Batch of 3 targets.
Target 1
Amino acid sequence: MPNLRELLPLVCCMSLLSCAQTPSSTTNPSSTAASTISTPAITAAADAPVITPAPMLTEAEFASCIQTFSADAKKAGISAPIIRASLGKASLSKRVLELDRQQPEFTTTFADYFNRRVTEQRVAQGRALWATHRALLDRVEQTYGVPAPYLLAFWGLETNFGGYFGNMKVVDSLATLACDPRRSTFFTIELMNALRILDEGDIAPEQMLGSWAGAMGNFQFMPSSYLKNAVDYDGDNKRDLWHSKADAFASAAKFLQSLGWLGDERWGREVKLPRNFPFLEAGLKNHKTLTEWSKLGVTRADNSPLPQAEMNASLLVPAGHQGPAFLVYDNFNVIMRWNRSEFYAIAVGQLADQIAGGGALLQTPPIDAPRLHRQQVMQLQAQLNQKGFDAGKPDGIFGPGTRRALSEFQHSQGLVADGFADHTVLKLLGIQSAPASN
Ligand code: CA
């Protein structure tokens, strides 16, 4: 029933589309995405168990492993010249091994994450690029049903609109990770798929560059996503996700379509919560209709009522009750199939809205929220477990289970049960929350 859905805003601020700015690469989107192992097709790697320190792969082990892969590639039908030009020239990358072994020491706050990615400059650049590529983006939307602002938002977050693709040789990176026993299965599949892409002639081996984890081109596709979703949209018989904007946009849109994108729906929206809102109702897995959320006093951020609709939504408070609140819809889950991070999905949605003419967040996230060291998260988990709130085995990762346990503990203490580790609850649990230094 489309009339009951909260449809995309038809806002289109052409007057704002003229402020082109020079791209700036304050962050390195490629390495950011790869460091969370969650670019389009690295998603599966995020399911891999948490990694413990392992010995470095040696040159001898690498050489022997490459021999095996070369034989496997031959059996899989990859042509001999491609095997020689790719695996035949592959070298072990110590840098890739180091990056793969790095784990973030501190949790990232929503303010820190969001404010680095959804910037005025990026919004302005997105609007300018929309104006530049309007005809192409319209055509892509007609073909795949993904509106331009979302494609621009993914493009902005993944590679700063093509400003940085990563400059590591994909075959070296994938061969290194495939030969390293830690996540060999996943990366062996990606390596073989990279060889297939080369064999199909889309790109020459020396030009196949990407992130340290093998994510490629404007939208940082892993080889498996590339094989499934890359489209030759400009008709030159090559699927070139690096140099052809037509191919890149169409491929990203096709990928989103395959992940279940609902073309006429929003991702979600910022909302306002009433005083005494029952925060135990928050969380991605907790669905209610917009009508039910309205009954709990939730309004749009500007205080106007939510649409009275049967559409399902979940409520997120990524920076706790003092930060912004969001109701998120089915397309939010589609974004999370691209990258399994709530922060990422909110950033995509907000960037898309702002590129489409929307304003900044009305409730800005507090910037003094504590960042927790992994050890402090483990301590928090152990404390919650000890008090009878199941945070799972302490692993130093502040995930949904920990958040839930913390909410329940907060509730038991008469605190706002937002599952957010603020200074008050940390103090109550005896965890020192001095501001973390970089
Ligand atoms: Ca093409």
Target 2
Amino acid sequence: MTATELRHDWTLQEARELFELPFNDLLFRAQSVHRQHFDPNEVQVSTLLSIKTGACPEDCKYCPQSGHYNTGLEKEKLLEIEKVVAEAKAAKQKGASRFCMGAAWRSPSKKDMPYVLDMVKQVKSLGLETCMTLGMLKEEQAVELADAGLDYYNHNLDTSEKYYSHIITTRTYQDRLDTLDNVRKAGMKVCCGGIMGMGEDEDDRVGLLMQLANLPHHPESVPVNMLVKVKGTPMEDMEDLDPFEFIRIIAVARIMMPASHVRLSAGRENMNEQMQALCFMAGANSIFYGEKLLTTANPEADADMLLFKRLGIRPEQREQCASEEQEEEAIVEAVEYEGTRHMFYDATRESA
Ligand code: SAM
Ligand code: DTB
Ligand code: SF4
């Protein structure tokens, strides 16, 4: 089978037609495209850490960290590098291949940059892929991060251009596109996606996917978040999204960006295992792994590994040099053990 070519000229009509396909036809098509570019039984695993929490000056209506809303979140200063490195080591031991660090900033300040650059270097030296999401970046800041060895930068468009002003007023859609451009020019990989279930209509969902797919390069990573409704935010009472609609979004993202990793991102706490399995079938091949996203809950790591085991899914290995392979194998074994641990009675444990 030859791999589908990557297109950057999707029309609204074509994207709408994909959305409107019968569910089984859409999933079959998405899975066929997926198999041309990826091992269908591998899922990339990233762990998130909030390195600076809350009191953000931006007014993103979905976000528990915005200083404009009272969500009862305990704010925290920039974490010390040693703490970040300890968390990164623990994530690696549990089987994550990428470590993503997020800060509740509009953009990083001059004073914070040296710490952040040092963090990148130290986390990378553990043999993990690195990702950061720190808000808007100027051209020079993107170059500094790339020079420090940052592999990915996450900056989401969040929704369609048309719906955007209903969600955020403190920065424009164009600001976001400019940051993405700076990240790309600096040579880093782009992680860019959005949130579903914020009251947008189907054309907004199509609009977001078109924006992403028609960028000069598809983002290497496309996080599709389902809104986590946080009390105190303007979106706390938003209506639930139909699960089939969410799975369709994953499938259309897979078809429009065949070679990108599509991440089943925030919101998995509110998805049952069957829904997640259908998302993997539709072409999702990346997750956030670990009990916490930035400030909200994510499924327990061993529950995820058990789900992988039941579905015959393996965590994707990071591209690596030969000397790291043995260490990586040991991690895979540890993950396999973690996934099956609860299936067996441990005869060596003393009863209480
Ligand atoms: N402050 C930086 C920024 O916004 O560019 C980086 C961190 S911000 C929390 C990263 C992304 O998390 C947002 O763009 C949004 O897509 C996602 N996010 C935040 N709150 C969310 C929620 N309640 N549900 C789903 N996704 C959310
Ligand atoms: C992304 O698209 N989703 C992640 C990551 N990029 C940084 C963040 C999800 C945050 C969910 C709400 C929270 O835990 O604060
Ligand atoms: Fe701040 Fe990012 Fe949350 Fe917006 S999404 S309020 S920029 S932390």
Target 3
Amino acid sequence: MPTEQTQESYFQDKIDREVRIEPTDWMPDNYRKALIRQISQHAHSEIVGMLPEANWITRAPNLKRKAALLAKVQDEAGHGLYLYAACETLGITRDELYEQLHSGKAKYSSIFNYPTLTWADIGAIGWLVDGAAIMNQVPLCRASYGPYSRAMVRICKEESFHQRQGFDIMLTLCRGTEAQRGMAQDALNRWWWPSLMMFGPRDDDSPHSAQSMKWKIKRNSNDELRQRFVDITTEQAQFLGISIPDPELALDPETGHYRYGAINWEEFKAIIAGQGPCNRQRLEARKTAWADGAWVREAALAHSQKRAAGTSAGAPLADPSGVARSGPTGATSAETNLSNPQPAPYVK
Ligand code: BYC
């Protein structure tokens, strides 16, 4: 019988050799907890992140923009689902995860506690917020936990489209009228600093980084990723012809990186403590969605129970997918549907 210590050194050795950890493998309890914390925070960020953007679907300036925004918000629901599913493989239920969000025990990204005041904010979110998300998430495609790393591959592909649509909105505004350029500048002024905060506290103030990097849950430090983001977006802002609201931003010729001014960490702490401009509103919206969805959950449960009971009794079932299925009578649901264009009722 291996001791806990030998199991742990075997586990670390696997991580060091880049072998993925899978749900049925032995893992230290703290590794499991660290993953649940990070993956669930990420999943919650996706579904809370839908709120400020969804606010603009009905006010998008044209059909093309509306379709792209609608698709983006739907993608975010999908990202939430992949991540919740990955998290559930660690032995926690979806209900427990939601409960942690609703009670305030689990965090979600600080960035979604700011309001979206104009259409340019949708551009700035795509460009900066999704840009920061990609910077942080591409390395997570190589995270040591298999289900998480695989979910991240798909998420990152979609995030790239999100970033492009945001940049395209900014570019259109910046090439537009004086008023439109003004809107783009105002959005950059409001979203720049909160975007830098998305990467988390400074490395010397980040309690989880060292262990998470040893376990390869995280591959890069918060400051490292933040610097990469500043380097890339500064030049994108120059291309757009708008100014980053940081008088200290300057290229350091020695390092080749852009130096930037001090981040207001007091604001960050207040936001993650629940005191941001929209924290209450965001949590209320999630709790209302959960309560309003109770009948859907009940109906889905009743449906699956009926199917299970029906299948075990060998009775024919209407397939909600609409694919013809033959029951013991030889009749298919498609045939039933021929005489009745409505979806076939359950056969008890
Ligand atoms: N917001 O030791 P640290 C997105 C918390 S958006 C709130 O550095 P760690 C999307 C942290 O949880 C982004 N809380 O932690 C984009 C910890 O508190 P607890 C979501 C934050 O985990 C567009 C404490 O501060 N992305 O997906 O090593 C549309 C100490 O921090 C934040 C992810 O979640 C923050 N910004 O590093 C829709 C990516 N930063 O737990 C959606 C995966 C830190 O001890 N997550 N905290 O109470 C990560 O990469 C890491 O968790 C972080 C933080 C870099 C965020």
